Every structure is written in C-alpha cells, then in structure tokens.
Amino acid sequence: MIDVMLLGTGAMVPLPGRWLSSALVRVGSALVLLDCGEGTQIAMRERHWGFRRLDAVCLSHLHADHVAGLPGLLHTVANAGKTSPLLVYGPEGTIEMLRAVRVLAQYLPFDVVVRELSGGDTVAGPDGLAISVAEGEHRIPVLAYRLDHPRGRRFDPERAEALEVPRDRWSVLQRGDAVVVEGREITPESVLGEERPGVALGFATDTRPCDTIRELVTGVDLLISEGTYARDDEVDRARARGHMTFREAATQARDARVGHLWLTHFSAAMEHPESWRANAAEVFPAVTIGYAGLSGTLAFDSGYRPFAGNAMCDGDGGRSAEVGG
Amino acid sequence: MIDVMLLGTGAMVPLPGRWLSSALVRVGSALVLLDCGEGTQIAMRERHWGFRRLDAVCLSHLHADHVAGLPGLLHTVANAGKTSPLLVYGPEGTIEMLRAVRVLAQYLPFDVVVRELSGGDTVAGPDGLAISVAEGEHRIPVLAYRLDHPRGRRFDPERAEALEVPRDRWSVLQRGDAVVVEGREITPESVLGEERPGVALGFATDTRPCDTIRELVTGVDLLISEGTYARDDEVDRARARGHMTFREAATQARDARVGHLWLTHFSAAMEHPESWRANAAEVFPAVTIGYAGLSGTLAFDSGYRPFAGNAMCDGDGGRSAEVGG
C-alpha cells in the first residue's frame, strides 16, 4: 500500500500561495520525497506527515526549482532526529549537485548516500519498494520514476494449521523463509498461494511525452504528471521547452493505461488550473487537477482512491488551499 | 532617504506563516537585501518592491537559514531582466558558499561579484550608500551592517544666480564638481553650504550584544536587531547559542542611542512575539516587534517614520499577516 500527496503544483518559481511541484510518498512508516524545490520543507510541515522517517529523495532533474530546497530540508530532517542514511536518487550530475548542497548543509547526523540512475535502472527503496526510472525528454537529463510496492503471495492459514506450524512462525513463512517444526522443514511453497499484484505509482515531470516514459508507467494505479501548459494552443511552447500540455499528459496517461492521473507543475502564468480540466478529461476522464494537499491511497485490493478530505478542496484549483496557517 | 521593510522574522527554520528573517532596503531605485533564507524570494514577491533592481545582497553569516534562498532568488532576479552586476557581501567563506550556490544557479545574465568583508570595512553600495560592517559574536563568523545614506551639502540658489551659473549646470555643482561658465571656474565651495547629516540603518542578527556592534550602529535612525528569545529567563540559552533576548537587544539599542528599534529573528518556539514587547520596551520604548511587511522610511529631515499602512498590522505579532495570497 502506498499513500501519496502533492506538496505543491508550481513550475519554475515558488509563488505566494503556490509551492513548487513535489510529491510525498508514504510506504509502511517510511517517506519518499519526489523533487524538492525552494519551500518544499514548509509545504511538508503544513501536511504533518513528519520529517524523521524521510528515507529517500528522488530527483527528476537538477533545475533549481526541483532541488534548491534540499539544504533546508536536510537541516530540518536532522533537527527531527533522523540518524539513518538518506538515499538521494537522480540523473547524472546529482553527485556534484549534492556536493554543493552540502556546502550549505554541512553538519548532519546522518549519511547522505547519492546514487545517479540511468534509464532502465531499478533499485530497492524502503519497505520493499522497487524504484525504476526511464529517461525523459527535456533540455537537460531528466528521469521519470515508477515506484512499485509488491504484495506478498496469499498465505493459507488452513494449510499452516494442518501442517501444525505454530502461529508465531507464520510471519516467517509469509516473508518467504522456511521454518523447522519438530524436525520437519516447512517451506513457504507449502503454505503460500498465488502471486498477487502490488500497487504502483508513476511520476513524470519536466519532460515531453515519450515512449520510454509511457512504457515505464504502463498500468500504474496513479500517474503524477506535469501539465505545465493548460491550453491546446500552447503545444508549440510545450515542445520548445520540453514540457506537456494538459491534453498531451492525458493522452500519455490513456496510452499507458494508468488507473488515475494527477496533473501538476503548472506554469506561473496559469492562474486557475482547474478551469482547464476539460482539456485533459476529454482524453482521459480519470484525471484530477492537482493542488497542494491532494492525497490518496494505492491499496492492494482497490487500487487508487482519494483521501476522504480531498473533496472539500477539489475543484478550486488550490491557490488558497496551498498556504495554510 | 532609505525605505526599509522586514520580509520575515523567523529563525532557523521557515514555518508556515513565518518566513525566515530578512530585510529589504530601497535607496533611490536600487534594492539591497539583508540575508536570504529559504523562501525569501516568495516573501519579496508578496511585497511588490520588485526584483530587477536588486543591486546588492548583504549576508550576516553563512548558516543555511540566512543564505539557502540565494539560488532561487538569483534565478528570479534573472527572470526579472537584471543584467547589471549583483554585489554579494558577507564574511569569510562567502566566496566558497557562492560557488556552491552557482552550481544550483548556473546560467545568469548578470555577473555575481562576491566580496568578503572584515570588521571595520566600509564599501560603496548603490546610490551613494556606504556599507560598513563590524564583527559580532556567534558560533561562526558573523557581520553586523550599517548602511549610511549621505545627504548632499545645502545648495544656495541665490549665490548660484549671483554667479550667473545656468540652471542646467546646478546639478553638477550639487554633486560636488566644478563648472566653467564663460571662462570662469565656479567651484562647489562657492555655492554649497554646511554639511548635513544623512540617515543610517543598522542590521545585527545572530550575534550576542557586543562593543563592536554597539559602536557600529551608534546613532542610526533605525536598528533592525535579532531578538531570538523573548523571555528574560532565556538569557543563558541566548548566551550559549550566540543570540540575544528582547531585553538584551533593547539594552544594546539604548546604549547605542539609536532612533528606533525593530526586533526580528524569533525562535520557532515563540508563538506570539508581540506579547513579550514589554521586556524590550521597559528598557527602550521606541521598539516595534517585527512582522513580515513592517516597513518605514528614514527621511533626511525627520528620521525614522513607519509607513502609514503599518498601524493596521502592528500589534498582532504578524503570524497571519506574513503569508498573504
């Protein structure tokens, strides 16, 4: 199961009332942050998911509006008491960029481990999460992310009881390890049923639509995608600057057969993103125009469902909702 | 004449509703920024004094909460169309820090000129401003600043007319240069009267009270001073961490015979700074507890006076006033 929340929806420059685009993911008790522009730590504080359990940061690319919040965030995570290593993933150049960040955030009580990824890579994230990336098309190297949270195989308690496995050993078998009961080895195979699908989240920003990303995010329960430009007649600008229109993002979501789509990363010139929803919904109806605080769950049985509290904010474009007191 | 405004009043960490401590100064059409933590550019945008004419940034010290907003600010100033050099002043280490900032803000259409200052230095700022510094007492090197805006000597139009100087040459004499009229050299001395006092602003944050700072800011029209801790019984903590209580800041202001005092840089644990005003006012009555947007003018004839709009905000501690929409 994955919980996910948008922390902001802005592009290029943080505005009063619109934090820069980033998303927070909670899996088990661990947090994963997707991009970290200036002010992201303030947006995180408003949302109360905590700082100490931030275990990984995934960076789409190294433009300042996606990374310049790192020095302050690292300090705040340190003040929250984190001591375990923080993993930072990003494209080529991330190691050098983190070296600069560490000039501004020198004394941290935890290690910052940086790993530069290339398209096709998959790495193990916290709580069994698999983090995969594809290369997008922007003015500089950019990565799209897919976070897969696998579900364990079904456990058959009747077979476990028939085999006289004590209940306090069941979790070992559920993990996939064998147990020995009174000299008999009980294998996981003997009590585990069929494979079951997990849940998956996609995150694609600051990129044109492209085959590599479509392939990466195929079938995810929720895709968070940039929609930098709302209007169809801005497609030339989107092409020139390596972004997408609402309609292009929706088309890519439809072609990748994702469950649901959240749009974010709105141009500073776009005042009311919600008013352009039809440009996306005509192509892909299961779309929500993002706002800070938009959140939902990817549940093993039911897939994507929005948090109950969202309805009261949905539809206002979120400008006033983004900067709470 | 100097206009000055507080952009935020927070210490250590930017909070929802409380930007980090920094101040903006307007002299002529030029802007000078005093410190730049994460989010300072958002606070600047809320206040509408513009970005393009930012000509200098004065950094008190290199802790992240005073400098981590620079990468984003530099981008935003670039987007506003600035092409002339930006001067950055700060203590030892500022050159290395700016090198790191430039990894995050690589492509700028203007030069960033960094100058490291030591106690006793005075440099020429924009529009005739003289920028002087003293070293404070903190856990790392810290500078307090004094900004002097000199006033020209009185110009005597009757003497200029008697000397038959054409009116379109008067400004040359007012600047202090000689003019030649029909073969006669007219010196400034012949038309300029007595020296007149200018106005001065002091800025001291993240420091204990100390002789060097008291000497630097003696007689300024307005002193912006940290008051990290409100309560008198926090004085040991203030000493240990290199900060001041309200009462200590007020005592230093009184001893330096400043015209008016603004307190800022409030600990995140201090929820209602205004409610502790008496701790400062008992020592130095001409004190205002800062909030984002607090602004005033240092006028040549009348010294410090608050902007008219301040009254409606003054007294509420400013938490709600700081994050406008």
As residue ranges, the low-confidence spans of chain A are 311-325
The number of domains of chain A: 2
What string, H for helix and E for strand, traces the elements of chain A in order?
EEEHEHHEHEEEEHHEEEHEHHEHEEE
Query: What's the rounded overall pLDDT mean of chain A?
Result: 93
What is the H level of CATH, i.e. the homologous superfamily of the largest domain in chain A? Ribonuclease Z/Hydroxyacylglutathione hydrolase-like
Integer-rounded radius of gyration of chain A: 21 Å
Instruction: Please give the oligomerization state of what you see.
Output: homodimer
Class based on secondary structure composition and strand pairing of chain A? alpha/beta
Q: State the helix count of chain A.
A: 10
Widest β-sheet, arrangement of strands of chain A: 6-5-4-3-2-1-16-17
Q: State the share of residues found in helices of chain A, binned by percent.
A: 10-25%
The interface involving the most residues is between:
A-B, 36 and 36 residues
CATH architecture term of the largest domain in chain A: 4-Layer Sandwich
CATH topology annotation of the largest domain in chain A: Metallo-beta-lactamase, Chain A
What top-tier CATH class of the largest domain in chain A fits best?
Alpha Beta
Question: Outline of chain A, from the CA principal axes?
Answer: globular
